[in-house]
Design brief:
- The structure is a single chain.
- It is globular and about 50 Å long.
- It is of the alpha+beta class.
- The protein contains ten helices and four strands.
- Strands 2-1-3-4 form a four-stranded mixed sheet, with helices on one face.
- The chain starts with a helix and ends with a helix.
- 58% of the residues lie in helices and 7% in strands.
- Keywords: Membrane, Mitochondrion, Mitochondrion outer membrane, Protein transport, Transport.
- One of its GO terms (cellular component) is SAM complex.
- It is found in: Mitochondrion outer membrane.
- One of its GO terms (biological process) is mitochondrion organization.
Length: 261
């Protein structure tokens, strides 16, 4: 059987199965362990699944970033639905859409293209900026990042894991050409993205009108995490806070989807 045929049969099987009552979303411990970029990604997926009204259970695991099928470090969160395991926002989104659930069914083709472009831009700029603040800014690195990332490991494994993670993140930032930037240049990129998002949102409740899309879930995950995670360097929060419609957007989504009685 060819790889193409095998993948087609797998997709057909996934699409034919209904969403189960037991789906599990694995992420690090929120109080002690999780870092800014990871928290943003995990919250984005939780928001996305909640907007779709799909049942899932959040499972906190110290080793969640090592739960990929290949056993290697993976991007978070990790979604397990029956025999299927997917990690990070983009792949989880594709899996959910394959099962017939979508927030963009009513969008025009040009709006869908615009939304996909914004998804890529948001994921790239916000994630790299969050990683930069966490792993390059010396004060945040020393006072927050190392303590949280190493909190679940005994000595001396905590030092080894911090060293490995820092190397991996700096390599990622180097590929994205963020490592050579100053903090002011990173902040400027975030500011320009916020300008674009603020313009796109305008005075609407969501980016494309009266109903949420994947972009709303992803942007909320990043913005709300930046606003609520306490760091000695809050330059990202200060930058985003200039855009009143974006801060109100976060308050509205939190109120609607995470403060249900």
């Amino acid at each position: 059987m060819s790889a193409i045929t095998s993948e087609y049969l797998k997709n057909e099987t996934i699409a034919s199965q209904p969403w189960p009552q037991k789906a599990f979303l694995y992420q690090p411990y929120e109080e002690e362990q999780i870092l800014l970029a990871e928290n943003a990604s995990c919250l984005a997926v939780r928001t996305y699944l909640t907007m779709l009204d799909l049942p899932f259970t959040v499972e906190l695991r110290a080793n969640s970033e090592f739960m990929s099928p290949g056993g290697k470090r993976t991007k978070l969160p990790v979604l397990r639905v029956e025999n299927y395991t997917y990690a990070e926002f983009e792949h989880i989104l594709s899996f959910v859409e394959l099962k017939g659930h979508s927030l963009t069914a009513e969008l025009a083709p040009e709006e869908k293209d615009d939304m996909r472009a914004h998804l890529c831009l948001v994921e790239q700029i916000f994630t790299n900026a969050e990683q930069y603040v966490s792993w390059v800014d010396k004060e945040v690195l020393e006072k927050v990042t190392r303590a949280r990332n190493g909190s679940v490991y005994p000595f001396p494994l905590n030092y080894i894991q911090n060293w490995r993670k820092q190397l991996a993140v700096r390599r990622q930032l180097g590929v994205a050409e963020f490592l050579k930037l100053t903090q002011e240049e990173v902040t400027d990129r975030v500011d320009k993205l916020c300008q674009s998002l603020s313009y796109r949102l305008d005075d609407k409740p969501y980016f494309y009108g009266k109903k949420p899309t994947e972009l709303d879930a992803l942007v909320f995950g990043h913005l709300f995490s930046i606003f609520t995670m306490t760091l000695p360097n809050n330059v990202l929060a200060v930058t985003i806070n200039k855009y009143r419609n974006l801060t109100q957007f976060c308050k509205n989504i939190e109120e609607k989807y995470f403060k249900r009685v």
